[in-house]
Design a protein that fits this description.
The protein is mainly alpha-helical. The protein has two domains: 1-196, MFS general substrate transporter like domains (Growth Hormone, Chain: A); 200-401, Growth Hormone, Chain: A. The chain contains 17 helices and no strands. It has helices at residues 8-27, 33-39, 44-72, 74-98, 102-130, 136-165, 170-188, 206-210, 213-233, 236-242, 248-272, 279-299, 303-317, 320-331, 336-364, 369-375, 378-396. Helix 3 (44-72) runs antiparallel to helix 15, helix 11 packs parallel to helix 13 (303-317) and helix 12 packs antiparallel against helix 16 (369-375).
Length: 401
């Protein structure tokens, strides 16, 4: 029997799975935080450190990857990312029991899969962008939808596992989740991977990239994109429970899942119809819809309207991140890995900042979550303004430099 010949479609499939792995990295452990507090006698501060460490390590990897990804290549980097993710997820089931301090064991596992997640965040988008295709914007949006499906799958399948077998058997599930990145290693080891900057094409240096006005505006858009997405996404569960008065379990599922599913569906729709929808129009229209959705969320206590607001928010933020990456690749074709790494770093900063703004403002006014979300409306407003400046700068400058 002849060996299966793999093509660039299989490369795209491997990238889809890579985004699912990233969703597992980010969203599995938080489902266990309450159990960890009881079983390992952890404090709220311990949980906060775990969450912050995941974010900080991914940011550091975003930054460091600029120096080594091009040297060792995309294939080796992708395989390394999946090895780290598998070790971290499986390690979550063993390290806390092997080491004298369970907290140190959890932190070690988190550090491993956070490094893998940071690498995946830098790698997947340029690998997708480099694949020969006439619908690069659609492929980018479709690939990013798999993070949404991964998030929904992690929450639903993990909840089902805990219901059927008990949360006390979470270690088995951690090992099962670790199998997926191991399987994807086999795919990444064999699929074709194209160069992002072709032979003979001039690559931008770091200094030229970092002083380019369009890059700086795109980086600002990525910060605001992350803020728009996570200001609502990270607080969707708390919003459903505290504002819409949903029972805790229902709120934990309904709020985040509705947001993620609508975001995923919109990315799929754009991915399939990208040739009919222009990004330069889709992004500002999405920013306007995002403003409307935040106003609905922050100004109503009605459950139906609140969930409509969350759904609209998921729709509106869906195009920001992949759309900005596609726009950057189009206008800065020589940016290479550094372009995607810096934009990922900017997006991560926005994700952390957007979520933090809601929490800080809400606490400052007596734990009023809706007021924190209302203040966050400034993020899509600023995105609309910055994107207008970017369009103006792009008209004055040639698309490539």
């Amino acid at each position: 029997m002849s060996k299966l010949k793999l093509n660039y479609n299989h490369t795209i499939y491997a990238c889809f799975i890579g985004y699912i792995v990233q969703a597992i990295n980010v969203n599995f452990a938080p489902l266990l935080f309450l159990y960890f507090q009881k079983d390992f006698d952890l404090s709220i501060n311990h949980i906060a450190i775990i969450t912050a460490s995941n974010f900080i390590i991914q940011l550091l990897v975003d930054l460091v990857s600029i120096r080594f990804v091009d040297r060792i290549g995309y294939r080796a980097s992708a395989i390394l990312a999946h090895i780290l993710a598998a070790l971290g997820l499986a390690g979550l089931a063993f390290f806390p029991f092997w080491l004298p301090d369970p907290f140190v064991g959890i932190m070690l596992a988190v550090a491993l899969y956070a490094m893998g997640g940071g690498l995946l965040e830098v790698l997947i988008s340029p690998i997708v962008e480099a694949c020969p295709s006439e619908r690069k914007e659609g492929a980018m949006s479709l690939s990013h939808s798999f993070y949404c499906w991964g998030f929904a799958g992690v929450v639903l399948l993990s909840s089902l596992f805990f219901k059927l077998f008990g949360i006390e058997n979470w270690r088995i599930l951690a090992v099962l989740w670790a199998i997926l990145p191991l399987l994807n290693i086999i795919l990444f080891a064999r699929v074709p991977i194209a160069k992002l900057v072709n032979d003979g094409e001039k690559e931008l240096g770091l200094r030229k990239l970092l002083t380019n006005s369009r890059f700086l505006l795109l980086a600002a858009i990525m910060v605001l994109s992350g803020a728009c997405e996570q200001a609502a996404g990270q607080w969707a569960s708390a919003y459903a429970e505290s504002v819409l008065q949903m029972p805790k379990v229902a709120g934990d599922l309904a709020g985040p899942l509705l947001f993620a599913i609508m975001m995923g569906l919109t990315r799929v729709y754009y991915g399939r119809n990208s040739e009919k929808l222009r990004l330069e129009n889709a992004i500002p229209l999405s920013a306007v819809l995002c403003v409307i959705s935040y106003l609905i969320i922050s100004l109503t206590n009605n459950a139906i309207l609140g969930f409509i607001g969350l759904a609209l928010c998921g729709v509106s933020v869906s195009i920001f991140w992949p759309g900005t990456l596609s726009t950057a690749s189009k206008h800065l074709p020589g940016g290479g890995t550094a372009l995607f790494a810096f934009l990922a770093l900017a997006g991560d900063l926005g994700c952390a900042g957007g979520s933090a703004i809601v929490g800080i403002v809400s606490e400052a006014v007596g734990d009023n979550l809706q007021f924190g979300l209302l203040v966050s409306t400034i993020c899509p407003v600023l995105l609309l303004v910055v994107f207008a400046f970017f369009r103006r700068a792009s008209k004055k400058t040639a698309p490539s430099i």
